[in-house]
Amino acid sequence: MDAFRQIPSVEHLLTHALTGELIESYGREWTTNAIRDVLTECRQELREGQTLPPDEALLIRAKALLRAQAALFPVQVINATGVILHTNLGRAPLSAAAISAVRAAAGYSNLEYELSAGKRGTRNAQAESQLTRLTGAEAALVVNNNAGAVLLALSALARRKKVAVARSQLIEIGGGFRIPDVLRESGAHLLEVGTTNRVHLSDYQLALEQGAQLFLLAHHSNFRIIGFTSEPTLKELGGLAASAGVPLLYDQGSGAISDTAQFGLPHQTTVQEALQTGADLVFFSGDKLLGGPQAGIITGKKVLVDKLRKHALYRALRPDKLCLAALSATLLHHLKGEALSCVPVHRMLAREESSLREQALGWQRQLGIGLVIPGKSTIGGGSLPEETLPTWLFALETRAPQKLLSRLRACRPALIARIEDQRVVFDPRTILPDEETLMLAGIRTALGQDKESE
Ligand SMILES: *Cc1c(COP(=O)(O)O)cnc(C)c1O
Asked: How much is the pLDDT for 82?
């Protein structure tokens, strides 16, 4: 029990020479609390039979704790994984113009103020005008994310109503967002249609006979059903819904507004096509193929969008000024037809194999190490499941690939690469132009440490 008596007091550690700089950086109260936390840990360690570290070691621990608590979050990382819409890495990187727009709107802004008239305005007006122009929809509304868009629409339109959903579309998006749960939360009754692999138009007809008052379609954004499968087309369902007078809501998800075939990917129903072929409302994310900030975008019939706008939940789900600033800058790129050169996600999708190979060879030359091998980039982010694009990878042979990955992650900015066939590989497709130098410096540092430890 003697060891416990030797534990220094908080007051004693506060007078230690090392503590001055901590107090200067973090303030006396925060520093005191950190020291207290370290001492609590220490007591636990003594109980477990460990020895008491010297005062300096305790203060170094307090410093590490304070540094971790004071870290900004989230911070920049370099995405060398080749996964374009990496949900863990914040999905779409913003364009330079979108980043400037966020900066410009960060102070006071005309978020809800009409400058010409000098009176109250609406935060949604500009995004709505740009979205309707872009998609041909009658009306549009922006909320915090696409999950919120679906929740708002069902809450406003489907409460106490029977909603027909195909069994093949009773999906979980991830993060616990499940269509049946959202339906329940919004007070709607789920009417399951067809089977897991095959759903026919006649199944929807049956649903109408059973009292369906709304059709909800969800895009297979993160999985694929293969083999003996079928689903009616949007056009067929649109026709049926229109003749029965029930709204058809389509969770399109990815936000494809141009033909994905231009990137060598399968064609995906675009927002415009969905609206033209019979969807009354189409929902999608702002930070997937649109290449903008996190947002949920609702486009479609004015009568329906107006109901959503008036619903109490809209107030809880509305987007903030930073989101709207980034969104309108991103929409502007699409409207001006400059997405391929300005929106990072589109630029990455459009990269030529030859230029990717050239870039990887450049890294090999500059670092004087590694191989350049063919590989695959993935789209990711719940948009085109399983779809890949051919790429060229810069590959490093190492005996301990996991260790190298962890050293790369310890760089600032952190470098996120991946392992393929025991090699650590870097995909040029997802490296932003101004990150290349930082990335090469990071690799040098990580490899240098590798040599020292051998
Ligand atoms: C991604 C996705 C969602 C969720 O969108 P968030 O913007 O992440 O909330 C919902 N439905 C579909 C079909 C999706 O692809």
From this structure: 98
Enter the pTM of the model. Answer: 0.93
When pLDDT is averaged across residues 284-290 and rounded to a whole number, the result is 97
User: Cα(397) to centroid of ligand 1, in Å?
Assistant: 37
DSSP reduced 3-state for 301: coil
Confidence tier at 381 by pLDDT (50, 70, 90): confident
* 65-96 per-position pLDDT tens digit: 999 999 999 999 999 999 999 999 999 999 99
CA 218–ligand 1 middle distance (angstroms) = 9
pLDDT for 433 beyond 80: yes
Answer for the pair 306, 139: CB distance below 8 angstroms, yes or no.
yes
Pairing status of strand 189-193 against strand 162-166: parallel
Give the separation between CA 35 and CA 11, rounded to whole angstroms.
10
Q: Are 112 and 121 in contact (CB under 8 A)?
A: yes
Cβ(366)–Cβ(381) below 8 Å: no
Q: Enumerate the β-bridge partners of residue 368.
A: none
Distance 217 CA to ligand 1 centre (A): 13
Q: How far is CA 38 from the centre of its chain?
A: 36
Nearest residue to 233 (alpha-carbon basis) of 199, 205, 262: 199
Gap between the Cα atoms of 127 and 101, Å rounded: 14
Residue for token pair 């650590």: 424
CA distance 246 to 239: 10
147 lines ligand 1 (CB under 6 A): yes
Pair 314, 143: CB distance under 8 Å: yes
Do the Cβ atoms of 386 and 224 come closer than 8 Å?
yes
Which pLDDT belongs to residue 454? 43
Q: Which atom of ligand 1 is nearest to the CA of 383?
A: 15
Structure token digits, residue 137: 């929809």
Q: How many angstroms from the chain centroid is the CA of residue 296?
A: 12
